[in-house]
Structures
1.
Amino acid sequence: MGVDKITGEARNITAKISEHYVDNARKLPWRIPPQLSASGILPDPYHVWLSEVMLQQTTVAAVIAYFKTFTARWPTAADLAAAEETEVLAAWAGLGYYARARNLHKCARHVAGALGGSFPERETELLKLPGVGAYTAAAIAAIAFGRRAVVVDANIERLAARLFAIATPLPGGKADIRSAMDALTPEVGAGDFAQACMDIGATICTAKSPKCGICPVQMHCAAYAQGDQESYPVKPPKKAKPLRKGRFFWIEQGGQLLLVTRPSKGMLGSMRALPDDGWAASTNGHGEPPLNGDWQVHENVVQHSFTHFSLEVDVAVYQGDMIAINKCDNDKCGNDKNDKGQAGLGNAIWWPIDGIEDAGLPTLFTKAVRWAVKRKREV
Ligand code: SF4
């Protein structure tokens, strides 16, 4: 079925998806159950915004614990705004895509300050907030404020592409998918409708082996009728990711590990981390250590996949004498990069290895730390 032929069936499809949601909605800590939302009770916009930012490129299962931690520690946007950025980044550690956490904090400060503590209701105003793109603006407007907005996330994209057998490869096919969802989105209850579609996409119309036998819109589904559900959405051919090499430096003494704060600009900016050799998305690291002395190098002990490149990491373990790391008083080893592109040691701190899981390290560095701790136990 082409998008132009949807209109006649739209009401039936929308009704079936909405009915299915009443008894099958996933229970998620940021949601209001459909029985309550039907009587006009809407969720806290702060909860909707926080969950939607966390859910960008992250699974629901991974987000639930973080959402609970954040809302227990910072129950309102004003509480989050009052936190230090480093605290927010540390609490975010493990969720990845750390620009989201920096924008989250900026956005909380803007809402708590310039907007007097209230999120705007309209998509156009929401779009002006740091870290809020078209999808998130539509989701907040619909779910938190009951406005009609067309919400299209990856789950909904898959559901719509299959329902209407939209054959234009992504990203070109996004316009047709949006038109299809526009035709289906009701005037009232757009938030619950969006969440109903998300749930079907996540639990029934899954990327692999969709459960068409229990799908409430099976009889309307063009991909099901063709028998080629998994061909949709049509994706462009995958480009090979470039492979970069980097090196982390393990400097330990007296049960403590040397950590630095990464440069404020660039990947994983302002996060606590092991010293490294200045690797980046566009370049390999130079391999040079931040201290003279003996180093034992273990090659390729961590592999990590970023969106646009993969990284192989060596870990170099310092074998030299005990060292004193003091605050540095020149620019080259301050908070930002030194002359080798590394995070300088001027901001270094010693962190107890026993409590390293509380240091708020990004996942990439946590992998290296876990490897090194395991190795220490084995030797
Ligand atoms: Fe997805 Fe199958 Fe339902 Fe079609 S019938 S929408 S492919 S689950």
2.
Amino acid sequence: MSLLRIDLISAVPDIFISPLQTSILKRAQDKQLVEIHVHNLHDYATDTYKHIDDTPFGGGAGMILQCEPIFACIEQLKAERTYDHIMYMSPDGQKFHQDMANSLSLCGNIIFLAGHYKGIDQRIRENLITSEISIGDYVVSGGELPALMIIDAIVRLIPGVLGDAESSLSDAFMNDGLLDCPHYTRPAKFRDLEVPEVLRSGNHELIKKWRLEKSIEKTKQLRPDLYKQYM
Ligand code: SAH
């Protein structure tokens, strides 16, 4: 049994193929630290024409994902297990943040519902969805990419997913809410551009101090809001 089970519901599930089968998300599934199940809304269409969307009542542009297939899919999943969250991706949802990723990474079962076209029938949002999440104040064409971003942010926090060298604990926002420090790798001198001397000193205390100073400096300059919280 994996630590976290994710069910992804979408009208265009092919979008998930590469992201879920590459790099860290793939490795996490291979190690059985997370299980990700994709559900194609078309498989839950109930009418003879396999419709999953229709025009909006009251008129206007765009199609709306219908109640029937989404209720059928989510009700079936809920009958099989208890979910911590049934989340709808939406630009008017709560803005996603590292703190949310941290707490979601401790969950057991989560459903992500991706909208498409103009959105989903409001009755779904009012009767099935437990939280609505936005990736920011801009609109993309479907909830698939937002869901993938959130899933990636969650899964990389599950112990054992990242190796020591990639540890998420030293990333931006994790380290006392500070931004990450600058990083360098070989060669020590590229053209006339040199790597700061201290990083080559081998003095771990000094390196730690330098990195913290740089993180503080950068946060103060780029994100005064975070700096204020840190102080
Ligand atoms: N009419 C909607 C936008 C529909 S875009 C509105 O103005 O609010 C189609 C789908 O893309 C949405 O149903 C949602 O699932 C997803 N989506 C678009 N922008 C998003 C964002 N910033 N965050 C999360 N999901 C988003």
3.
Amino acid sequence: MKNFTSVDDIQDLAGLVALAKAVKAAPFANQELGKNKTLGLLFFNPSLRTRLSTQKAALNLGMHPIVMNLNTEGWTLEFEDGVVMDGTASEHIKEAAQVVSQYCDIIAIRSFPTLTDKEKDEEEYVISAFKKYASVPVISLEGSTEHPLQAVADALTIEEFKAKPRPKVVLTWAPHPKALPHAVPNSFVKIMKKADVDFIITHPEGYELNPEFTEGVTITHNQDEAFKDADFIYAKNWSSYIDYGKITSKDSSWTITPEKMALTDNGKFMHCLPVRRNMIVNDAVLDSDSSIVIQQANNRTWAAQAIITKILEDDGK
Ligand code: AN0
Ligand code: CP
């Protein structure tokens, strides 16, 4: 594996999930692999899970992680080519990416979308620029259109908790007060398409995701119908894609309640976290045994460790 910036970079999902299970069972078995190597984590946005679990994964592999909050502590970067830099940006990504490549063996980046400039977001202009100018492998810690490390943790969690060979998995929209990105649902859709599951998406009208991601997936606007006999409920808010970055509904009838969970087949509740209680999901669900969000967050370490292992083993090939 050269870079990991999309679920599309996964050649063999079953093999990757098996590797994640193996590193979970023996976290320190491969400490020579990362010896004397450095993982650089660059954050343009906040994080709890991604920041800590990816560092932990690196440490488990004997690697040294170094972390920087680029948006608050670094120079403002310019991403356009050929511009006169007479504005706020002090440094061009061309130099920045080459310089960081000399300090790090892998560069990992978190960069959320603008949610105002669809074209720029879809180009993944930050992560793409790092890929273009860096001389080492690049990992996405959530870009503007995908969150692939989250998706690997999600696939591992479903694999661990499934009670039947082909479980029914539902991705449901839920309300939120702020406009959120599409990266988590997009990557979840992509990985569920590769997994051995019955997959269905439910959301209010107007919340269609980019059809390039959802092509071939059953979509319904009837949440209750979708929940029937489900084994996993994966809740997530996202802003409108059609009315790009806008909140067109905060309909509280889409909040996940115990009554809705009762429609499922003893279904498990999943969310990538951070989650807003009693907006996305009621306390009674999140605090119940059906919630596996904490175990899901634990799997972020093993997903990251599996990906870093693949990159180091292939030496970025
Ligand atoms: C982000 C999002 O929805 O993409 C990060 C989730 C991992 N969530 C928030 O900003 C609340
Ligand atoms: N799920 C996730 O990526 O969480 P953080 O934003 O806290 O990293």
4.
Amino acid sequence: MRLGLLGGTFNPIHYGHLRAAEEVRERRALDRVLFVPAALPPHRDEPEIAPRHRLEMTRLAVDTNPFFEASSTEIAMPGPSYSVRTVRALLEERQGADEFFFITGTDAFREITVWHQWEVLLTLCHFVVVTRPGAPFAALAGLPLLQRVPPETLGALDKGEQHSARCPLDGGRVLFLEAIPPFPLSSTAIRERIRAGLSIKYYLPEPVESYIIAQGLYR
Ligand code: ATP
Ligand code: MG
């Protein structure tokens, strides 16, 4: 069992998240991808939308993909959502999973060295870093973790000359860099559009849009 994990606030979930997860699932032959909404993101302000709404939107968004699943693991855990705790909890919960692939966008990964026990986290799972518009791989140059990745590789990924790079880490884990087709979407932009009374159609799955409207979220 090869299990992917995409964490986030999913406030709200959108096609950028879904497409990134689907790309990684196919490229890395994952059996399943768990979408794990965070309860209390440690490095950002608490989102204004209750965890149960973010979990429900995530459920609605992944419903039609048999490989995807919404996980309440972080939301159900008391205390801050540290990824290292989440992965440990999931390893317990999914005894059958032999390999974990932690998926993040370049913007999230750039901050990894401030994550709680990040060095331990890197011994528990592989990492898959996907490109995100506005956050090129080149911006990761200098990260201690990428010491063994030549800067030319980062440039080649950004230019589309190379689609992925495999970087062995200490302890047998692997860091995969995946240049995926760009989806210039963010939850911030969606929240701003709703506040401005603009359409969010085709930014996220229709059931999520309907839920946002029915619940009057982000107004
Ligand atoms: P916000 O604007 O509120 O920060 P967001 O769109 O960045 O929301 P998050 O929930 O913060 O979404 O992101 C969860 C994970 O998904 C992060 O690892 C992030 O890098 C990744 N991600 C989000 N949007 C995209 C996208 N358009 N393309 C690739 N990865 C993305
Ligand atoms: Mg974000």
